[in-house]
Design a protein that fits this description.
The complex is a heterotrimer of chains A (289), B (249) and C (311).
Chain A lengths: L1 H26 L8 H19 L3 H30 L3 H27 L12 E4 L2 E4 H23 L1 H11 L1 H6 L4 H24 L9 H15 L4 H21 L5 H15 L11
Antiparallel strand pairs in A: 1-2
Chain B lengths: L10 E10 L2 E11 L4 E5 L6 H9 L6 E6 L2 E2 L5 H7 L1 E3 L12 H9 L8 H14 L15 H14 L4 E5 L7 H16 L4 E4 L3 H7 L2 E6 L2 E6 L1 H6 L1 H8 L6
Parallel strand pairs in B: 3-8, 3-9, 6-7, 7-8
Antiparallel strand pairs in B: 1-2, 1-4, 4-5, 9-10
Helix pairs in contact in B: 3-4, 3-5, 4-5
Chain C lengths: L3 H16 L1 H4 L2 H27 L6 H15 L5 H23 L4 H27 L4 E2 L6 H24 L1 H11 L1 H6 L4 H23 L5 E2 L1 H4 L3 H13 L6 H19 L4 H15 L3 H5 L16
Antiparallel strand pairs in C: 1-2
Classes of the chains: A mainly alpha (289), B alpha/beta (249), C mainly alpha (311).
Chain lengths: 289, 249, 311
């Protein structure tokens, strides 16, 4: 039981980290990014390549992957998504357009990964040292990943609440038309938030690659889980993200231990639906309509 | 089961409450409408009048409180069920179906009764309702091109098509020029003459004075006055709600 | 456009001509015709639901897969018509469950849910197969020829169009038009909008399920990952949107050219097919002048944002 709870918390922390980027992308830039998981997997592949071909540790790899991902995401927003933003008459239309555009992007990225790496499963072992905590054996890499996730999340939270840019980002998330009235460049801020989200998901990809097996086609599952966490936690709400992530991780770990490990996605969905049917704006979301 | 007796309200809300986040939009509202009367629901902007209508028509669910209509408990019931039970309404921003014809707009109110009429009778009713609201000459115009008051009339015709036992009007007379206003007031009075009880949210004083049997005044979600039109408009609490406290108080 | 009797005669002539194809075409063209029919059925069924309601469903793969996998499981055990009927029944059940759970939610959440639905069902099927039947991957032994498949698909296509036509003329169709115009008004007219949407969703999904069942004998070996392939959801959405989802005959206009394009691309560029499809899709999304939403007949109205009443 303790094992299940500890595993669940660690898993939940990871989910929260994975989802934080999406809550930025969706909550601020209003882009429902269905290709999100593909970026995570791409970062995982990058980390794998850096480690196996160049013996560069994932922690160092972060220094490469994060800025590159930031840049790529920024470019994606500016080149690919800005035309959609410009012509969408309202936020709802933009959501629909962005879903389909990123659906297409998902296939492009997945296709590129398939061409480069094929459909095989990849993994590598890094820092897989057992550590005893509370009488249970846990892997060091997962713990370090969780610690980094907490640090990243806290850094993001502080950035959003203590800096001017962070406040601008939060303003755009709440009400873009009012944000414009106080001289916030909504397009630029959205681009920044989107890029920041891309950087975060890449960081998550590097971290999870240390202990998870992945392939070119596993992106969808990550996207789904991130979407579930973001929606459950309330869109644009970092704290909600954390709590929803933990809830998801815990429920998954408990079901995997006591019911069946093959039913994890079903549990995710059940939790997702359950929360939305009771609280349509998510656990902590503001009612948007 | 026999219908409600005169003296039994057709609509009664008790301690009706609805909040949005931290804002209490409707605060323990007690409201009654008796058969055959027009009740005015007044109050400054943001006092909760439209929210109250939305709670009654089923567009919103109340957080607590009861709504009793014609012997049924409807608090929290879905809007379509409330419509079938006999409450019809118009909206503050006119909602007519722009992509459909005038006749189809009215037919929308006729096609989904619990026991819908046969086809031929439906067509007769459509024409009759268009005549009733004064739109028989407009029947072939395209809806988006109709004038503001004609769109309001169309919305009213759709509401009447439901054969309602209670009509909720949300600022139906707003934005009309003086002659349109007189026509509109006459139309509503004629509805009352046919025995239809009406709950009227209004700002237009002429309309309130000439139409309402009774008034309820809201402010900040709460009922602050109730009674005849003159009594209510002279009530100092009401005056303060609309105009603010006197400068030298 | 043309009078009703003339349209009827034309339709019968078209169907008769199509029915004669197996006698005239060789194996390659028959296979192509089957693909064309398959995507016609799927995209028209998709448009049946997503056109009026403007909910974008990415669940095509889920229902198609359910139909295909039912055949894989029951194909050798039961007579063919019964297998089709059971597949349809499972499709109905799944659609009702999914519909009632998700159609109350706003459109975006519906899209998310349907996006992962194929993956969810695939996981459930894999779990069941691994733990209960101890089989993963099944051989499809059904005594069905290509010609049989073609004629069944043709029949299904006819049924699909007939159903679409019948719904449009019915009270349900009227209700759906009103819902598409203004859902709040629809509710206040006594329309149970959730039920209407669920019924429509179920009709659309069941057609997709039966299509999957009919197509199953084309594969000799089916695994859950083959049956529940998200690619098909994606292709169907492009086709329907390209042809126009707000008219019954719209999706077919997109399905025919896109199917031909996909056949060409997958033959010429088999390894980069996925990438090219993604690019094609992106091109279509960008080429639409009013965006994807514009193709779904009319933009969603929000009283705050459109002030036609004050024009």
């Amino acid at each position: 039981m303790t094992n299940a709870i500890l595993t669940g918390l660690m898993l939940g922390g990871m989910y929260a980290l994975v989802a934080m980027g999406l809550t930025l992308q969706y909550g601020v830039a209003r882009i429902m990014n269905l290709s999100y998981g593909e970026f995570l997997v791409a970062a995982a592949f990058a980390s794998h390549w850096l480690f196996t071909a160049w013996a560069i540790s994932p922690f160092v790899g972060l220094a490469f992957v994060i800025p590159i991902s930031f840049g790529v995401s920024y470019a994606v927003y500016r080149i690919l998504l800005t035309p959609l933003v410009r012509r969408a008459p309202n936020r709802d239309a933009l959501e629909v357009d962005s879903i389909l555009a990123t659906f297409g992007l998902m296939f492009v990225v997945q296709g590129i990964l398939l061409t480069m790496f094929g459909g095989a499963y990849y993994s590598y072992s890094f820092l897989a040292i057992p550590v005893t905590v509370l009488g249970e054996t846990l892997a060091l890499n997962r713990m370090v990943a969780l610690a980094l996730a907490v640090i990243a999340g806290s850094a993001l939270y502080l950035a959003l609440t203590r800096t001017r840019i962070g406040t601008a980002i939060r303003a755009v998330a709440v009400d873009p038309s009012s944000a414009r009235l106080v001289a916030i460049d909504v397009t630029q801020t959205s681009a920044l938030a989107f890029a920041l989200g891309g950087a975060m998901v890449a960081a998550a990809g590097v971290l999870v690659s240390m202990f998870l097996t992945f392939s070119a086609t596993t992106g969808v599952v990550f996207t789904m889980k991130a979407l579930i966490v973001v929606v459950m936690g309330g869109i644009g709400n970092l704290l909600g993200c954390l709590i929803a992530g933990l809830a998801l991780g815990l429920s998954e770990a408990l079901v995997a231990t006591f019911v069946d490990p093959g039913l994890t996605l079903a549990v995710n969905y059940a939790l997702f639906l359950g929360v939305l049917l009771i609280k349509p704006a998510g656990l902590f979301g503001r009612a948007q309509r | 089961m026999s219908g409600p007796q005169a003296g039994t309200p057709i609509l009664e809300t008790r301690a009706l409450t609805r909040t949005f986040g931290g804002l209490v939009a409707v605060d323990r509202l007690d409201l009654t409408v008796y058969p055959g009367e027009i009740v005015g629901l007044l109050g400054p902007n943001g006092s909760g009048k439209t929210t109250a209508l939305n709670l009654i028509s089923g567009l919103l669910r109340p957080d607590s409180g009861a709504i009793r209509f014609n012997g049924h408990d409807i608090a929290g019931a879905p809007a379509y069920r409330i419509a079938r039970l006999g409450i019809a309404r118009t909206f503050q921003l006119v909602r007519v179906l722009d992509g459909m014809s005038c006749a189809d707009n009215v037919r929308a109110g006729l096609a989904f009764h619990r026991h819908p009429l046969p086809q031929a009778q439906i067509e007769e009713r459509v024409q009759a309702l268009l005549r009733r609201v004064g739109l028989e000459a407009q029947a072939h115009r395209s809806v988006p091109q109709m004038t503001y008051i004609d769109r309001k009339r169309l919305e009213l015709a759709r509401a009447l098509a439901l054969a309602p036992k209670l009509l909720l009007l949300d600022e139906w007379l707003a934005g009309l020029n003086p002659s349109e206003l007189q026509t509109g007031i006459a139309l509503i009075r004629s509805l009352k003459a046919e025995g239809l009880p009406i709950l009227l949210v209004e700002h237009v004083m002429d309309a309130i004075r000439s139409l309402c049997d009774r008034c309820v005044v809201m402010n900040g979600g709460r009922k602050i006055a109730e009674g005849s039109v003159n009594a209510v408009l002279a009530d100092p609490a009401v005056v303060e709600a609309y105009l603010g406290a006197p400068a030298d108080a | 456009m043309i009078g009703a009797p003339a349209a009827f005669v034309l339709a019968v002539a078209v169907v008769a001509a199509l029915a004669a194809v197996p006698f005239l075409a060789d194996a390659y063209y028959l296979a192509l015709a089957i693909s064309l029919l398959q995507f016609t059925v799927l995209s028209t069924a998709w448009g049946l639901f997503s056109g009026p309601t403007r909910y974008i469903s990415l669940a095509t793969a889920a229902f198609f897969g359910v139909g295909a996998y039912t055949v894989a499981v029951l194909g050798e055990v039961l007579p063919w018509p019964l297998v089709l009927a059971i597949a349809a029944a499972i499709g109905v059940l799944t659609a009702v469950v999914v519909g009632f759970s998700t159609l109350r939610l706003s459109g975006v959440y519906f899209v998310i849910f349907t996006f992962g639905l194929a993956e969810l069902i695939r996981q459930l099927v894999v779990w069941y197969e691994v733990n209960k039947s101890r089989v993963l991957g099944r051989y499809v032994f059904a005594d069905i020829t290509q010609t049989d498949i073609y004629w069944q698909l043709l029949a299904l296509a006819v049924v699909t169009f007939l159903v679409g036509w019948a719904i449009a003329r019915s009270r349900l169709g009227f209700a759906l038009r009103i819902i598409g115009e203004d859902e709040t008004v629809a509710r206040h007219c006594g329309i149970n909008t959730t039920l209407a949407k669920v019924v429509l969703f179920t009709v659309s999904a069941t057609i997709m399920t039966v299509a999957g069942a009919i197509m199953a004998p084309r594969w000799t070996y089916i695994e859950p990952s083959i049956a529940f392939n998200a690619m098909i959801s994606f292709q169907v959405v492009i086709m329907a949107l390209l042809g126009g989802a707000h008219r019954l005959w719209g999706p077919v206009l997109g399905a025919v050219p896109m199917t031909l394009l996909f056949e060409f691309l997958s033959a010429r560029f088999p390894s980069t097919f996925t990438i090219i499809m993604g690019v094609v899709f992106l091109l279509i999304v960008y080429a639409l002048p009013r965006g994807v939403v514009g193709l779904l007949a009319r933009l969603p109205r929000r009283p705050r944002e459109t002030s036609e009443a004050l024009r």
